[in-house]
Amino acid sequence: MRRAAALLAVVLCALPPAATAAEGYAEVRSPRGVTVPVWHGTPDTPWATAVLLPGGGGALELAPGGIGRMRANTVVRARGLLAAAGIAFAIPDAPSDRGDLANFRLTARHAADLGAVVAWLRARHPGVPVWLVGVSRGAISAAAAAARLGPPPQGPDGVVLLSAVTGATSWGGDTVLDAALERIRVPALVVHHARDGCDVSPLPGARTVLRRLRRAPRRELIVLRGGDDEDLNPCRARTHHGFLGLEPELVQRVAAWMRAAGGPQ
Question: What is the pTM of this model?
Answer without folding.
Answer: 0.91
